[in-house]
């Protein structure tokens, strides 16, 4: 069995007196967060920062300390089973201007409820729920 590791982030912004989350529409059709495979000699946070810049153009953002979720799932690639581990961080963006990469066909800044409804995969919904709860406990959510 193959093993693959990716890192990504739930990216949010607090502007216009509202907390909104960034969702990306991948060319395969699903809605998810920024994420990508760890490259040689990269730390998890370096991977997240690089992927965020490549996929969205966001360069000014801050990691929210204390949030790190790990999820794993299996998928098939060329007839082989791949065990994929995804590490997800929480990041506050300083801008809502997005420059999409070729990997995506659309994006959306959505409030929590809309984001939960729009995300395609159950594990992404669960991760957003944990991130939102974490932000609420820290007093960082604007409604």
Explain how this protein is built:
The protein is of the alpha+beta class. The chain is 25% helix and 47% strand. Strand 1 (2-15) and strand 2 form a beta hairpin. Helix 2 runs antiparallel to helix 3 (122-137). The longest helix is centred in the C-terminal third of the chain and has 16 residues, at 122-137. The protein is globular and about 50 Å long. The protein starts with a strand and ends in a 6-residue tail after the last helix. The model has no long low-confidence stretch (mean pLDDT 95).
Topology:
Elements: E1 2-15, E2 18-26, E3 31-32, E4 34-37, H1 44-56, E5 61-77, E6 80-93, E7 104-110, H2 112-118, H3 122-137
Parallel strand pairs: 1-6
Antiparallel strand pairs: 1-2, 1-4, 2-3, 2-7, 5-6
Helix pairs in contact: 2-3
Distance between the termini: 45 Å
Tell me the number of helical segments per DSSP (H or I, 4 or more residues long).
Answer: 3
Radius of gyration: 15 Å
Q: Averaging pLDDT over every residue, what do you get?
A: 95
Number of E strands: 7
Gross morphology: globular
Main beta-sheet strand count, sense and barrel state:
7 strands, mixed
Strand fraction equals over 45%
* N-to-C series of helices and strands: EEEEHEEEHH
Q: What portion of residues is helical?
A: 25-40%
Tell me the structural class.
Answer: alpha+beta
Assembly category: single chain
User: Can you tell me the residue ranges where pLDDT is under 50 for at least 5 consecutive residues?
Assistant: none
């Amino acid at each position: 069995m193959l093993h693959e590791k990716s890192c990504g982030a739930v990216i949010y912004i607090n502007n216009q007196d509202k907390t909104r989350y960034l969702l990306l529409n991948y060319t395969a059709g699903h809605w998810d967060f920024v994420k990508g495979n760890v490259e040689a000699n990269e730390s998890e946070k370096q991977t997240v920062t690089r992927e965020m810049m490549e996929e969205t153009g966001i360069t000014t953002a801050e990691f929210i300390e204390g949030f790190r979720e790990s999820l794993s799932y299996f998928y098939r690639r060329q007839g082989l089973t791949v065990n994929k581990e995804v590490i997800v961080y929480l990041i506050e963006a300083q801008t809502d201007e997005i420059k999409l990469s070729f990997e995506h066909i659309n994006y959306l800044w959505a409030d929590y409820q809309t984001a939960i409804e729009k995300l395609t995969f159950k594990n992404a919904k669960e991760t957003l729920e944990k991130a939102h709860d974490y932000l609420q406990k820290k007093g960082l959510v604007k409604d």
